[in-house]
User: Fold these one by one.
Assistant:
Number 1:
Amino acid sequence: MVFFTEKTSLYTINQSKEKVTENILKTGAAKLWCQGFTGKNVVIAVLDTGCETAHPDLRNRIIGGCNFTNEHGGNINIYEDLNGHGTHVAGIIAASNNNGGLIGMAPDAKLLILKVLNKEGIGSLDSFIKAINYAIDWRGPNNERVNIINLSLGTKNSNNEVYESIKRAIAFNISVVVSSGNDGDGDINTDEYSYPAYYEEVIAVGAINNANKIAKFSNSNDNIDLYAPGVDIESTHLEKEFISLSGTSMAAPHVTGALALLINRYELITGTKPTEMELYNFLIKHTEQVKVTDTNTILLLNLANYDDTEINLINKELLIKCFGEVRKTQAFFTQCLNDYCSPEDKEFLISLIQESKSTTNKLKKLCYGIKP
C-alpha cells in the first residue's frame, strides 16, 4: 500500500508581485486578518513532498521538519521538495506577508515540514504512520506543539494502522485536515472514496471552482465536511516560482489555514485553547450553504460568514468575570491600605484608584446595566 499525491493540472508559471489571490479572498480570510488574527503561534504539520525551504515566501514560516523518504540519501534533516506539490500546499497555508510574492491563509503560522512523499508523489504506509506520530510527539524550541495536520494525499484502501494513527492525533487535540480525492465524476449523487479522507474523525475537504460549483474532479460522499477553492489555485513552487494547480490537494490547505486563524480568534474570545471538537464546531459556523443542484447543498468555507451574537455573549461573560476579580482585588487592596500605609501613602494610592473609577463604571454599565 502506498500513499500518493492527487493528480493535478498545471496551468501557468509567473513571477508575481505581492498580492492576495482571488481564492484566498473568497474564503473571507482578510476579515480575520483585519481583526489581528493571522495564525501567529499556531504550528501546522504538512505531510507531503517536502518544501523548498529557501523560497522567499516560506523560509520564515518553517519551524522544523523531517525526511521520511529515501531521497537525499535518507538524511532525516533534509526535507527539500523535488516535486513541487508540498511547496504549493505550504504556500496556500502560510505564505508570508513579506512585501513580495503571495499571501497564504495564515501568513504568521509556523510550518513543520514532514516529507513523506518522493519526487513522484509516492510514499509508504510505514513512513506516513511514523510522520503522524512524529507530529504528535514533536516539541518546538519553545515547547510548541502541532495544532493542525494537513494531508493533501490519499489512497484507495483503508488501513487500520493508518486509522489508529489518525485517531491518536485527534485524541491529542490535533485537527487533521484531508483532501477528499480527485476521482469525481461531476455528479454529487455518486460517491467516490479516498482514505484517510473518508474516516469520520478527520475534516474532509472537497474542491469548488470559481463559480462555487463542485469541481468535476472532486470526490463527493457523505463524509465530506466542507468545500473550499480548488481550481486554478496560484501558490508557491520550486525555483522560487509561483504556479497554478487544481485539485482537492489545493482545497484542503485553505481549510487548514482557516483553522489557524480560528484558533487565534477562539483563544482571544474564550481565554483557552479549543479542543479539536470545539475548533471543528467553530469552523462549521464559518461556512455558508451553497446550492449546487436543485436538491443538493454543500457547506462552503466562508470565514466572513458568522453571527457575532454568541461571541458577544462570551465576551460579556468574560468581562463579568474580570469585573469580579477587580472587585476582590480592590477589597484586598483597601484592607492593605488600612493596615500598612502611612496617611500620606494612603492618600496617594487612593488618588490612583480614583483615576481608574471611570473605567470601573464603564464595566459596571456594560456587564450589569448599572449607570455610572
Number 2:
Amino acid sequence: MGDLLYLYGLIPTNEATHPLPSVKGFDGEHEIFMLPNEDVTAIVCHLDHAAYSEETISDKINNDMEWLQEKAFHHHETVQQLTKQYTIVPLKFCTLYKNEESLRETVEKNKAKLSETFALLDGNEEWNLKIYCDDEQIKQQVSESNPVIKAKRDEIRALPRGRQFFEKKKMDELINQELEDEKNRFCEDIHEKLKSVSLYGSIKKTWGKDVTGRKEKMAWNSVFLLPLANVDQFLGNVEQYEGDFQETGWKFEVSGPWPPYHFSSFS
C-alpha cells in the first residue's frame, strides 16, 4: 500500500453502514474504502507516493490530455455513483493527503462546518439549468418591438436629414445593447421563478459555443439545490417554459441530479 490518500468525498458516519460499491480507485488497482473519523467518514483510495507525487500529477495534468480525461472521468463517475447512496460533500479532482493522520486533522478542524453542510444537503439535490437563445431571432424581435428602440427611431425621424444619417449608424449599437438587456431580463425572471421552488439558486459562468458545441448561444447557466419533493415541480416548470418560449428563440437544458459541488465546500 502507498502512503498517499486520494479523497473522493466525505459522508456522515451514520450513513457508512451502507456498503460501498465495488469500485477501483484512482490508480485502477486498489479499491475505494471508508476511513471513519467520529461523525465524518472519508471515502478514499490508496495511491503509491512515487507514482502519484505532486510533481508527477502536475506534469500529467499539463502534458497528458488522454490521462487527464481518463482520470477526470473516473473521479466524476465515482463521485456521481456515491451521490446516489450517501449524503456527500464531494471533493475536487485530485484532492490528495499525505497520510491518514493529515486527513483526520483536517476533518476534525472542519467538523462543525461539515455537520452544517450534511444537514443542508440531506434530502436535497443539485440540478443545473442552461438557457440558450437564437440571437438573430431575438434581435429581430427587439428591433421591432422594444420601446427604447421605437423611441429612438421616433427621435431620429424628427431630426434634420444630415443628423439622421449619423444617428442611424448608432442604432445597431443600441439594438445590440437592448438585446443583451432583454436576454438578461428574461433569464433573471426565469431564475427567480425557479428559485421559488428551490432552497438555493446560484448563477454560474456561461460557456462559449466552442465548449457547448451548439449553434445557439448560451445566455444563462445556473444551479439549484432542490428538496426531493420539489424536483418534479421544478422539471415541470422548465418543461412549460420550453413549450412557451421555444418559438421565440429560447431553449432550455436541465440536468441532474449532480454531486452538490456548488452547495458544499471543504478545503
Number 3:
Amino acid sequence: MPKYNKVLFMSYAVPTFYPTHSGPVAPVGAAPFVSLSNADLQDRAQRFVNVLYWTREKFKDHSGMIDDKTLKIFMAPEFYFRNASADEVDSRRFNLMTYWGSYPAELRYELAEAIYDAIHGQNEFKDWSIVAGTITSHLPGDGEYVLTGGLLNTTILMRGKRDKMDASAPYVLMEKHYISNIDGPDKDWHANLNPGTIFSYELNPDQSLDNLIRWDDMMSGLEVCLDHYKGVLLDALTLLWNVVDPSYPPLDLQLVTSCGMDLGASNVVVKNGALALLTDGMSSRNWPNTPLTQLGRFDRNNLASPLQFYPLPELAVLPEGSDFRVTYPDYEGEQGVYAYEAVDLLKTNCHG
C-alpha cells in the first residue's frame, strides 16, 4: 500500500515562455541562501527557494499540510531555469550565439544539489515532493557553435524529509524526449535527436523508462510538455505490459510540467480513480492570462469525459519584487501559487 492516502497539490503559476531577467534576488524570511557557480542560475534558484518557503508559510494551516498521510506536491512549470542576456530579454527571443537560454550541462546537478540542500532536512518540507520545473542546458561542442554538443531540457524531481526514507534516490533528473518548436533552434541542435551523442533517444532505448519512479510505495510518472502529447508514459507502460508483465498496474500518480500543454485523457496512464497533475508556464501575447494548472481524476467508466478536473482554487498572489517575481513582457496575469484542498490519492468508485 502507498505511504500516503491523500494529495495536496500546490502549483506555481509563473510565465516562462519569454526570456526574463534573473534578478537581483536575495533570500527572504526563513529561506536559506543559495550559492551556485553561475550568477544567473543562482538568482533563479534563490527565487525558487524563496517561493517554496513562502508557500509553506502561506499554507501552513491548509488542509492536509500537517497530516503525515498527505503527500504535498509542489510543481513549477517547464523552462523555469532558463538563462537570458539583457539583449534577449529586450528582444523577447533567445539567441543561438548566447546558447539559446541554456547553461553548461554540469550545472543541472549543481542546481539539484542546491535546491535539495535547501529542503531535505527541514521539517517544514516533510512529506513533500517537488518538481523544480526544467533547466535548459548544453553539452560541450567542438565546432563553431558551442551548441554542437547538443541541447538538453531536464526536469528535477525531489523529495523532502520522510519519517523513513526508502532505498530510492532522494532526487532524480529526467530528460525531455520530444522537442517542440518553442524549445530552441532547429531540432538537430538537441541532444536527444543528435546521433553523435550518447544522449540520443535512438541510441539509448532504455530512456523510454526513465520517466518512471517508485517512491513512497507507489509508482509515479513525470512528463515534460510535448512528451505528454506524444504519450511517453503510455509508451513506457506499454513496454512493461508487453515485455515484463501484462498485468503490471498503471501508475499511482502522473505529473506533467509544461509550457503550452494541457492534460489529455488518452495519454493519462494512472489507475482508475487516480490523479493526474499539470503545471504550465505558457504566457505570450496570445496567452495573456495566468498560466494553466490542472488537477484531474481519471474515471475510465465515464466514456464522455474520463478526466474530471477539480475547480481551480483561488490564487495566492506572490509579494511584489524580484525576490519573488519575474519581470515578464505583455503579461496581464498574476504570479502566485494555487493550493488545492487535499484530495484522496485514489477513489475506487469515482463514477458520478
